[in-house]
Design brief:
The protein has a six-stranded parallel beta sheet. A two-stranded antiparallel ribbon has the order 7-8. It has about 300 residues and is of the alpha/beta class. It is about 40% helix and about 15% strand. The longest helix has 27 residues.
């Protein structure tokens, strides 16, 4: 089986994209697919609940996405935090092991996929599955502080005046260390809703000498700023200035805003652009569900 040599350095994303011909496909929504597989995610841990109850479903979803053609799979750690697991009664050691488990599952899915590829000579199957031996990245997801709160604040960026960059660094510090040590190819800081959390992530990467490259993706509800109202250009500039950040972009944002947001980001960064929007629905924090927007397209 072919070995893909992609350096775990600030050159990772550009080298990966070079090998992929210029573009790569990220997987889709994890929680949606887990629910289709029968998982009950009505829990503050959301998709991370399956790390406790049904890790085999997470692996199955990763494999489904790889067989659908995804080149990057994102771990089930978006809402997985040490603080969140400890609130469920787990020890610090158990909580850290669950974080590591999210990466292990994705790495195992990639190994299984490559094994399936080695047994296939056609690059696919009769049922439409893609079995193509190609570079695949495992991205360890780090959701925002608001995701841990499970109150919808990752879609508003409103953490209160008392929240600071230093407090956010301390909240995320050990989580980032554990995920990096677990051996993913890249860390995905996702749904970053405000400037102070972007700054916290950038400083953490530097302070902890994290060896794994990272990307930062922000969310927007107006197509101009991030959801807190902070300037997208300022947020993207923070990502641009951090050596370990190898790509910057937008996630969990209505598709109708994406084109203009890409153009805005390109004004302040030379790094590859990461884009994975949502369906255009709006999150209702009171009902804890996504609702159809009258402007969903």
């Amino acid at each position: 089986m072919e070995t893909f040599n992609i350096p775990a350095t600030p050159l990772l994303m550009k080298e990966f994209l070079r090998q992929m011909g210029g573009t790569a496909v990220i997987d889709g929504g994890l929680a949606t697919e887990l629910e289709l597989h029968g998982a009950d995610l009505n829990d503050p841990l959301w998709s991370a609940k399956c790390l406790l109850t049904s890790p085999h479903l997470i692996r199955s979803v990763h494999l489904d996405y790889l067989e659908a053609g995804a080149d990057i799979i994102i771990t089930a750690s978006y809402q997985a935090t040490i603080q969140g697991f400890e609130a469920k009664g787990f020890s610090r050691e158990q909580s850290e092991n669950l974080l590591k488990k999210s990466v292990d599952i994705a790495l195992e899915a990639r190994r299984m996929y490559y094994e399936r590829c080695s047994k296939s000579s056609s690059g696919g199957t009769g049922d439409g599955r893609i079995l193509k031996n190609r570079p695949i990245l495992v991205a360890a997801s780090v959701g925002s502080y608001g995701a841990y709160l499970a109150d919808g604040s990752e879609y508003s960026g409103c953490y209160g005046e008392a929240m600071t960059v230093n407090a956010l660094k301390e909240f995320h510090r050990r989580r980032v260390q554990v995920l990096a040590e677990a051996g993913p190819d890249i860390i995905a800081f996702e749904t970053v809703p405000n400037k102070i959390e972007a700054q916290a992530f950038a400083e953490l990467l530097d302070e902890e000498h994290i060896k794994i490259p990272a990307w930062l993706t922000f969310n927007s509800k107006d197509g101009v700023n991030v959801v807190s109202g902070d300037s997208l250009l300022q947020c993207a500039s923070i990502a641009e200035s951090c050596k370990q950040v190898v790509a910057v972009g937008i996630n969990c944002t209505p598709p109708r805003f994406i084109h203009d947001l890409i153009l805005a980001i390109k004004k302040v960064t030379t790094k590859p652009i990461v884009i994975y929007p949502n369906s255009g629905e709006r999150y209702d924090a009171d009902r804890k569900e996504w609702v159809v927007s009258s402007f969903s397209l």
